[in-house]
Structures
1.
Amino acid sequence: MEDVPSLVAQAREGRPRAVARLISLVEGASPQLREVMAALAPLTGNAYVVGLTGSPGVGKSTSTSALVTAYRRQGRRVGVLAVDPSSPFSGGALLGDRVRMSDHASDPGVYIRSMATRGHLGGLAWSAPQAIRVLDAAGCEVILVETVGVGQSEVEIASQADTSVVLLAPGMGDGIQAAKAGILEIGDVYVVNKADRDGADATARELNHMLGLGESRRPGDWRPPIVKTVASRAEGVDEVVEALEKHRAWMEEHGVLTERRRARAAHEVETIAVTTLRRRIGDLRGDRRLGALAERIVAGELDAHRAADELIAGLTGS
Amino acid sequence: MEDVPSLVAQAREGRPRAVARLISLVEGASPQLREVMAALAPLTGNAYVVGLTGSPGVGKSTSTSALVTAYRRQGRRVGVLAVDPSSPFSGGALLGDRVRMSDHASDPGVYIRSMATRGHLGGLAWSAPQAIRVLDAAGCEVILVETVGVGQSEVEIASQADTSVVLLAPGMGDGIQAAKAGILEIGDVYVVNKADRDGADATARELNHMLGLGESRRPGDWRPPIVKTVASRAEGVDEVVEALEKHRAWMEEHGVLTERRRARAAHEVETIAVTTLRRRIGDLRGDRRLGALAERIVAGELDAHRAADELIAGLTGS
């Protein structure tokens, strides 16, 4: 068993191993998970969580790296959670381990964590928010959550950020692909990366059209900006940071930040509750109660719905 | 609202519209679902449920049709539940509506029902067993459940039958594909269809090897037979029926049939319980209780796990 209070204290001092250990405890649903989460609860709520999503090849990792550099110049502590299986950060990497993000590997103000997209109890919807809480409690002021914009759970995670950045790159049909993946609906800030390539202006125009950004909005509504970048040369990255800060300020002004964080917390509670109930029901396999109900169903004495009622009633409290 | 007792009575008399209506009520989770299931419970448990699964192109629909013919010659009432989206029975068809199975379309002793693989509350794991109960209560003595052997829920349904038939066809790599799809573990009877083609013997040998059928087994163990068929010409189909009857007799002799039906009922109860709890949690979205919990989490006063406990305690009693 780990000494959780000591791990938490070390994580708050900026010790990467302690952060890594805590994330492993929460994502693996260890017996100490609840102890860790209870210890972290009063320490969280300070980080600004930015989701970055986009199809493979748009330059998500390069953009994430450039944003880390920009935030580090401001002296902010940054956490990166990469839930993209194709990301160079992938493979259980923390702080330079198998990480190509060499600019940041030796920077003690940056935490990098990758997360496999499969295999966790309850999946990403369960493990990502808890890893974010660890990074938050460890003192990261900005947390960049990089997800590939393919797959419902990845899009869901991105949409659960304080601010969601959707990345695109010039090229025929890219906008259509983004729309298909459902990521066009979730952007607070849009980035057309690789803007030195042909078609960048066309992509931005197409995006502007698809988003209906030309249409009138109610006063006070957020109008998602479209920023053009060449992340590999850090061009336009300061403008992205500026757009993020504007969105954050707008959210704070309109009470949206608290609203989003409550929605995220509610979603997290739901996920944990469903996973817990599923596990409890799973524990009943081979249990006498479920076996007895099944026997009565086969005998035609009971239908499956009334049996499910009895099963649910038996789950109470425990 | 439907008159459920009248629908049930009509279904027992063999009226196809009543059967169709009842299936729609149970798969769509109508408000009358529970009334229907309660009315059906004492009438079920007589049908012999046979699952047929295999990769696309092995001739599942042709084999199903040939089995229907064989069982009809014995004077048995037959139900077909096709949960294969690529099946010719697909598209909400009942009794000839958009069905190419023209041999049986006008036969009042055959019910054919297709089931979409998506869109139902709780998915196939929820709707298929309930549709089977309707066909069972309607007096079908044999129910053939045709599923494409791709995708976890499809394989799961096939494995929940009294007897599972796995179909293959000659061709390189077919066995490997079957193994990958996880369908090799679930077969009680194996059929190599299209046995007039080159490689049928090789496929049967490969299958025999992969299944370890040459190895010794405990006395009384079931040894899955491999039957070669040309379903389009009805060749070998009587042998399949014979193998099914042998398996049924073996199951009855060894208490396996009751055991399997209890396992199926237990699985059904679990699925209904999980779906019900999920829905109840979903109903809490925007609910004051969940909102209040989320507020306390954002304030750092509570962690998501303790919040989930409170949510669960509030759910399971109602």
2.
Amino acid sequence: MITVEQADRIILTELRDYGTELVPFEEALGRVLAQNIVADRDLPPFNRATMDGIAIGFEAFSNGLRTFEIEGTQAAGDTPLDIQNGTECIEIMTGAALSSTVDTVIRYEDVEIAGGKAVVTVNSISKGQNIHLKGKDKKQDDVVASAGQKVTPAIVGLAASVGALELLVKKLPKVLIISSGDELVDVSDTPADYQIRRSNSYTVKAALSRIGLQADILHVPDNPVIIKQQLLYSLQSYDVLLLSGGVSMGKFDYIPKALAELEVTQLFHKVQQRPGKPFWFGTHADGALVFAFPGNPVATFMCMRRYFLPWLNAVLGLPNVKSFYAILSQDISFLQPLTYFLQVKLSFSEDGRMLAIPLEGNGSGDFANLADTDAFMELPAEKNNFKAGEVFRVWQF
Amino acid sequence: MITVEQADRIILTELRDYGTELVPFEEALGRVLAQNIVADRDLPPFNRATMDGIAIGFEAFSNGLRTFEIEGTQAAGDTPLDIQNGTECIEIMTGAALSSTVDTVIRYEDVEIAGGKAVVTVNSISKGQNIHLKGKDKKQDDVVASAGQKVTPAIVGLAASVGALELLVKKLPKVLIISSGDELVDVSDTPADYQIRRSNSYTVKAALSRIGLQADILHVPDNPVIIKQQLLYSLQSYDVLLLSGGVSMGKFDYIPKALAELEVTQLFHKVQQRPGKPFWFGTHADGALVFAFPGNPVATFMCMRRYFLPWLNAVLGLPNVKSFYAILSQDISFLQPLTYFLQVKLSFSEDGRMLAIPLEGNGSGDFANLADTDAFMELPAEKNNFKAGEVFRVWQF
């Protein structure tokens, strides 16, 4: 049986390159850029008025002039208006592009306008005020977002502003979620006394959809012939299989045998952890990966969060799995030599610390608890007693 | 001019009830429950084997019996098999429902099986071991997720497990994002020297889509007749209008006038903050809300995050806007009497504290910076100098 760290290392060695694809910028949210987004011109592209008021040449003002002839009015989007000499000004609106004949904007609050003239009512202004200078944020050809970045709402907006209609992003692996076990019936069925409804696949599918990955779902019965056929098809059609259930030592757990026959090499089986000890991981000769999680709902969910998502991040080249640490709020004991994934509720205190409040309920296997918690806290196998105030890694979900 | 806190209070007074709707449980992720989800039977619904092995009556073992006749083999999903007396056992698989004639499971590792008999090779077992007892997690009719909770992947799975095919959730308001200004051209256009491309609407739309709200987009030209027509239609067809641009003091800002003519009451205009000072907020006689954000991309984005999203949370009855606090990593000065929304990158230190690292770039208006930051830190107007180590509220985006 291997440790959590060893399992981590083995999984993170099995990275694949799934290539890239072009998507409309509006649909790129959450994807990982495979290209730089570059400014097609300076940002801002012109000297831009940031207030409504009048635009003047500063020199005339510094020579004592306070009354300016209004040469014209220029809205945002209008062709820039010139002044002919320093005694003139332009009435200008926020967002308008300034002509090279003006260099300073005085806001309406500081001028009085009457009879085609603007009188400045303040004595102190500074040259260049209320102007967002051409190229101040970015120069033409500057990178505004880099390959490897995750596309955020701000990056969608940046892509729009530089006219990047399509973005090259990393392709996501094709993922199939497989449940197994004849005790599982459809959600719409009424189970017999000894049956339960399928739920794991929906939990995993929902968790993946939240990060933009649309996975398919398949249920296989406890029948060795059908299992082998279905797994063969799945290994040929998908990049990753996420199985839940069917990997224990039971007589009717046909999956490990079928995987072996289909040239899936087992890289490990069983990890020193609770929940999720029977976790099985292997790779197919043609490249597909098989994460076979134990059927217990909390175990499936935890293994998906703790192992599959970090693998996916690594595949997409995201710099590092974001590591979160939180402070345990109360003493906890766990006496077995296993890494314990404790269900916790996170809370941000007003002093900037992240607290993890355990909600043990009926122990690690209580799926109902997951509704009221938002992270697993990873308590290392080397210790048995964990004290309030100690800091450990947490995996938010 | 009002303070950030006053703006907050005014907005959070204008809550509306948008009713409820039924959605398939698979599509409920991120929605807010308007019903409790209740266990349709005990969870687990039967005494469930948690290991593969043999099931026995503990009394026979405690009387010294170590060899048990195998009466039959029962897989998960099979009808429970009974033993006829204490000398018998059932070979049992993980997930199987135990008959009432057995009360203890001994895993395969602790038995030797040969010739139709199982010999227990350990001397110490405990009654009830390796069984997840019926009703241990939840009893029939217990609430497994409550009205007012946001649907997480775990709650999707819980809904599946109790057969809740449809969930009653709170309706989301219908939101229209309106941009204005003749300086703005289509993303697919090549702007003239004095024009820029529309981007704000895409940023806001992307941010809302991330929380499951699909907003529509509209652009209005700087034409008072068209603006009034479009706003009239929008106020009748949508619950919330999010405008960007067109609310400054300029001659061509027709929007405030049109809103007034259409019976939208201004509740405030201008907030003591940077960016976003010209923020305008009002309500229509028939109930629609108008958030009119300044056109600067950072201002629009900040106001959407700081004011609209908390309003939406309050409307949906989410307990409290989750408040995050972080520790400023370096000294910052901001000399104006305004609340300053500083762009920061958040980082979780290994001691469980959340650090906020400022990325000022070219100041509060630099949109390109948003690609490299992940929160606004709210630095209060009452102070001008903010020291490394001090803690302030942050708004993650």
3.
Amino acid sequence: MDNPVCRLTGAEFPLFAFSHCRDVVAAVSKAGGFGVLGATRFSPDQLEEELAWIDAHVEGAPYGVDVIVPETIDPRVAAMADNAARAAAIDPRYAEFAADLLAQYGIDANRTVAPLRERMGITPENGMALMEVAFRHPIRLIANALGIAPPEMIAEGKRRGVAVAALVGAKEHALRQAEAGVDIIVAQGGEAGGHCGEVSTLVLIPEVVRALGKAGYDTPVLAAGGIMTGGQMAAMMAAGAQGAWTGSVWLATPESEASEAFRQKMVAARSRDTVRSRSRTGKPARQLRTAWHEAWDGETGPGTLPMPLMGMISEPAFARIERAAEAGNAQARDLVSYFVGQGVGLVEDVRPARAVVQAFREEFVEAAMRLAGSLG
Amino acid sequence: MDNPVCRLTGAEFPLFAFSHCRDVVAAVSKAGGFGVLGATRFSPDQLEEELAWIDAHVEGAPYGVDVIVPETIDPRVAAMADNAARAAAIDPRYAEFAADLLAQYGIDANRTVAPLRERMGITPENGMALMEVAFRHPIRLIANALGIAPPEMIAEGKRRGVAVAALVGAKEHALRQAEAGVDIIVAQGGEAGGHCGEVSTLVLIPEVVRALGKAGYDTPVLAAGGIMTGGQMAAMMAAGAQGAWTGSVWLATPESEASEAFRQKMVAARSRDTVRSRSRTGKPARQLRTAWHEAWDGETGPGTLPMPLMGMISEPAFARIERAAEAGNAQARDLVSYFVGQGVGLVEDVRPARAVVQAFREEFVEAAMRLAGSLG
């Protein structure tokens, strides 16, 4: 396929696969799609290692990196210097609430949940550090979420010929990103897994494409949110997108970082089984709904914490949930959750990433032919 | 165009236009689309009059009627014999809350809001009475929402060769409808105006199409929710739908029942300006967000009432809001609202219904060609 997005990124088929797992990134890029490594979970040293692995395995196919440099910081958090200061600032009742909830499901009944201190959180300084690592590798795209891409990212992208992409959930944000000089807008609907807005992909894509055009920008748009099949990708390209940005579908591959327990839950889940909740990262993010979300979002809980504090409580708790589930605690399986979009209702089995790309290609052609055929 | 939906209904172009206004219905059908009159607001006598008018003006083009026969009734309401009994059962503080809210916006400061007593509400008996009127006219489609179409509707549709359609917001509901013998499934995403579920149109369409196919049903699916352009209609047909079911877009026509004040708000609104709220009908329905919704959905209000009680409070209040806005009360304009989907963000002007059909046709062809062209 040949369109501006393909030319900007080197993608043969404009199916962008966001994954935290290097194996998915390499497999998708080698199959003609475009893998994008989500870097936020890694330290700079870890990211260096992951990207070196991809460079050695991707056979020269183009790939990208996604970092999160949040544009705004909750004022409650801004003055805290580092994760140790942040951990110290968290009222102990949050950790107690998490520990009590886990205990109700038979997980580590006599242990508290200590807030994460050592690992990277979603903060501007961490995002910038990861960006610097990414630019040392032959990436073809760098993406940013949670606000305007920082000027350093845009300048460095232009200098190196690396396309800069930005995720947005509203028309106004797309216009601000285009004005800032971003090369590709990823317009993500409210059905998406992870951080998302409220406007659906089907409405957002034509709205963003039209708004950019009217403002005189030719910035191409990728459609994100709910896309699990080549038919949906074709649909969004009929509506004006130049490709698809996907995430959840790759969790149902054996290569992904998702646990086997979570993959089984994906196959079983209906599209109605997700929830947009602040209870994992502190910002609204769509995920598989469990009693965790009901407890934190309910009226008897302590409420949620701002980013990144909420993650400092939730991530150690979810790590314990996963360990307990893996060890055979059936109750713990009930709590297993992860970021996933409404498209989870379309997942029927776990398939290798390469097979997913192939299915997208076939479904895409089928959908385009079906639509053309309807013209008679 | 020729597909099963076109053959079932006689539509030339499978663009279904739901409207409470007979002028829209006739204009769309005459332009090659398919108008569907929303009958719920009418008494049986009024509906008879509306349909006679359509018969006299539609020039033989096919049209349909949409009734609401709710499958389940809130147990708090089930025992009440009629609207007078229902009105008597509403705690006076609901009417007081509505009157206070209106007074804050300079509307009828010294008057209470008397619950509606005389008009039809959304109840099974009212829905059945309207259905009987509809079948006395040369309709080509009868649609039902809020649950399984009643057996009488399906039997009478089959006897008369009238296609029976049912609106659903979830895969499981689509399967139940197909099993009940419905001819056309209207799968409506959570971005839709009016009563809606939570799963987005882009996810729901392939999910419903696939589920019906796997269960051995060949029931065609219309896509509803967020569709305001022919590009989106084409997108959903690429994704497996056989046509589009639309509503909000017709409110921005001069023929529609919407007030001028509301039409102006539609043109100004962004896709993020809607809310899914129980505060108008008692069931979750998407509408333009105003202080009305914040007040009723907020924590200081009395909560919302079940259907049809909520509408017995809200409809007289909204009628006063409209009258005050029309009389020049600028504050009242702030409260003007109506059922509308997220697609409101795509409305740029008020155009005749015939011109909207024509735009859909052109955009549809353009989108299908664009997608086919991407195959190279």
